[in-house]
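Summarise what follows for lecture notes:
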Amino acid sequence: MNSQILAESLKIVRRRFKGGRPACGLILGTGWEAVVELFAVRKKISYELLPALGKTTVAGHAGLLLRAELCGMETLIFQGRRHWYEGLGWEPVALPVYILKKLGAAAVVLTNSAGGIRADFKPGAVMAIRDHINAMGTNPLHGKHDSCWGARFPDQTAVYDPRLRSLLKRAARRHDVRLQEGVYIGVAGPAYETPAEIRAFKTMGADAVGMSTVPEAILANAAGLRVAGLSLIANPAAGLGPGGKLAHEDVRAAGQRAKENIKTLLLEFWRMMAREKPGLRQA
């Protein structure tokens, strides 16, 4: 990984967000864009101004880094993510976690839309990620070791912070939002999976499948950040639905249908995180 281009991008963020001390970060995947409406946005930077990030290429990903606040907690929101399948290496995927680590954030919340593998996962359901399976055929920690990412051989026994997951479940119960829990399997993409692959993933223990999140979770956990992950189930995975082809437009539409539920969940979750001491710094 090119540490120099990450450091150059961080300098730009520090200059434009002078004095920024985020308590946590939020990376928004497809279908989660409405969550921004909850936050008071103070400043923003286009991804195109950050050499390690660059312009997003996926519909529904705005490509903006926001300095924002909710419940008194300063948050860096990455409005859209870069993916491994875009072919630009690990730097665009790693930069959000790198920035959060260097600015002293304690936690990151990763969101995505996913295909449901488990039979009781219906479109519009929300899954708290308990664990993941890396089926991408690669790992963002490959190559020369950088101490930013902690130990050379990071432990992954509990990548997704149990305490944050407990808060998510409490937030969901408080507002009657159905929150399920499961294992996310990350694939390289960009092609959707075949029915045979989905059957294999089910045998492996996966409950939902997508093309993101796993690399950021690996990096954040290695760097010492607390990690929470949320998947919006957009559709049944290949071969499990009533028929028809999978399409990105359907994934975005699922996000629109579920937006009030996910906004309610995250608002209450932020309230609970803001009360957590120690571990998450308030603005």
